[in-house]
Amino acid sequence: MDSLQFRDAADKAIDEIATYYDTLAERPVLPSVAPGYLRPLIPSSTPENGEPWDQIQADIERVIMPGLTHWQHPKFMAFFPCNSSFPAMLGDMYSGAFNAAAFNWICSPAITELETVVMDWVAKLIALPDVYLSEGEGGGIIQGTASEVVLTALVAARERFIRRRLADMPEGEEKMDKAADMRGKLVALGSEHAHSSTQKAAMIAGTRFRTVPAPREAGFSVTAAALRKTIQDIRAKGLEPFYFTATLGSTATCAVDDLVGIALLTKEYPDVWIHVDAAYAGSALVCPEYQHLCPPLAAFDSFNFNLHKWLLVNFDCSAFFIKKRKDLIDTYSITPSYLRNDYTESGLVTDYRDWQIPLGRRFRSLKVWFVLRTYGVNGLRAFIRNHVHLGEYFHDLIKSRNDIFSVVTKPAFGLVTFQIHPTSSIAAAGMDPAFASNAEAQHREDLNLATKQVYEKINSKGEFFLTSSVVCGVYLIRVVSASLSAEEKYLNMVFEALVEAAEEGRV
Ligand code: PLP
After folding, report:
1. Which end of the chain, N or C, is less surrounded by CB atoms within 10 Å?
2. Would you say residue 342 lies in a domain?
3. Where does the record place the modification N6-(pyridoxal phosphate)lysine (predicted)?
4. What tens digit of pLDDT does each residue of 214-256 get?
């Protein structure tokens, strides 16, 4: 394909993409294909001779569309959103065009420098404490996903812990043996509701993993007292907690751990690295009404949120902020001769390879820059506030039928969780206490079962896509409507579908 053919193909592709967005609501949100649907639709090997673009593009509708789950669809209310926007797509297009693996500053100064500046913009936009700005000892870097960030932070925490403990030992075999022994005793911590990425990171890093209880009575949040007790219990066993993921917006219910209390704990446990995972909810910090959550972040070591979830930047884009970039560089900077250059030696430039696990990196800051400039602070705030409003709107709908629904968690960052009342339940009140606790347990099981049945009915119809979760033994349905095309009318529709599914079979 030469540049003339590229112009023609790109025109047609962009035209098709724009039409896709304009007509998205007319498609079913979920595909109806069976596993393995795709293989028979395309040849079993690479064509001998190249094909013209028209022939290739035609397969988007024929082969790809039938198997797509449409994440930008207004009836997609599952997981968390994965928002896209046209300026972000343009950023990705340029990134693809320049196609650099910009690991060192000299590999493309614009790529490094724009990322540093744009991450400072983002830090200021969400009112992160100044310690996370690049002007001081901190800074931001873009990673692909929150899971990568958590792994990067956890491994840096492990190595910082060991560096500190063995600071007085001379380098050599003995120190390496001692470090290896210590690694075997390290324990990473996360809320029982923390995203699975913390457990996975601990597994990859070869450390142990323990959860901190966050019961329903505590709003599914980790309190400072619960964290302290877990740390003390682990230490009593001769093990060393070295890392904790605090969550700002848990996956199941959008719970926020007690950041203020945990910030105070950092004085007691200065060697425990605290990372705040705000993968989804962090975007809400663009709004002043959420920024009261930010001051305690100054006490922690690192923070991340995914602009690809709720801030209109196409996947992938997880902003990772670090208070002391030296903590990353001391772990990840390994400079063989082929990576040496005068700029690196001068110490005047940032080489982002020293802040992360991979070497090469894409030009992701371009799409962030385009989005921030296209929407501006006010546009981004309006975008978030609309979804927060929709969460409250849906909550009111659910509450209006408390004969059917029972709210588990009130709207938090646009997410509402609820259960369905079973058709019949055994009233525990007034019973012999010996039977009452059995009856309560039975009632909880009935609630879970009724909720699961309704959830499965809704998703099997394919008109809406929702997710469910189990927290502290409670099976709940989650509804979060936060795409660019989200509107009250779609929440009315899903509410009616839920009522209908719950009422089916009721007497
Ligand atoms: N952390 C939280 C709180 C999440 O909700 C999620 C995903 O929804 C993740 C981490 C993982 O995100 P990623 O896909 O970017 O790794």
Report:
1. C
2. yes
3. 309
4. 999 999 999 999 999 999 999 999 999 999 999 999 999 999 9
ipTM exceeds 0.85, yes or no = yes
Per the structure, the complete domain to which residue 278 belongs is given by 101-362
Per-residue pLDDT for 436 more than 70?
Answer: no
- For residue 277, what pLDDT is reported? 98
Q: Which residue, among 283, 284, 320, has the nearest Cα to 304 in the 3D structure?
A: 320
CA 182 to chain centre: 31
Contact by Cβ (8 Å): 139, 322: yes
Percent of the chain with pLDDT over 90: 90
- Of all protein residues, the one whose alpha carbon is nearest to atom 12 of ligand 1 is 146
Q: Structural domain tally of the chain?
A: 2
φ, ψ of residue 469 in degrees (nearest 5): -155, 165
Beta strands in 169-277 (DSSP E): 186-191, 208-212, 240-247, 273-277
- Cα of first residue to Cα of last residue in the chain, in angstroms, is 65
Ligand 1 centroid – CA 151 distance (Å): 12
Same domain, 406 and 500: yes
Contact 116, 134 (CB under 8 A): yes
- Are 342 and 387 contained in the same domain? no
For residue 410, the domain's CATH number is 3.90.1150.170
Domain identity same for 265 and 223: yes
CA of 218 to the centre of ligand 1 (A): 22
- Tokens of residue 18, six digits: 């724009």
Which residue out of 151, 196, 197, 480 has the highest number of ligand 1 atoms within 8 Å of its CB and is therefore the one to mutate? 197
Of the candidates 206, 196, 276, the residue with the CA atom closest to the CA atom of residue 244: 276
In a domain, 43, yes or no: no
- Residue pair 488/466 in contact (Cβ under 8 Å)? The answer is no
From 71, 79, 193, 251, the mutation candidate for ligand 1 (largest count of ligand atoms within 8 A of CB) is 251
Test site for ligand 1: of 71, 147, 245, 247, most ligand atoms within 8 A of the Cβ: 147
- pTM, rounded to two decimals: 0.94
What is the rounded average pLDDT of the residues 317-339? 92
What's the 480 CA to ligand 1 centre distance in angstroms?
Answer: 15
CA angle 366, 313, 99 (to 5 degrees): 35
Provide the pLDDT for residue 284: 98
Closest ligand 1 atom, residue 318 Cα: 15
pLDDT in tens, 181-207: 999 999 999 999 999 999 999 999 999
Cα–Cα dist 419/477, whole Å: 6
**How far, in Å, is the centroid of ligand 1 from the Cα of 245?**
12
Cα distances from 265 to residues 167, 195, 200, 259, 305, in angstroms, run 24, 22, 25, 10, 23
The DSSP call for residue 134 is T
Helix (H) or strand (E) holding 80: none
Q: What is the pLDDT of residue 343?
A: 79
Is 370 a member of any domain? no
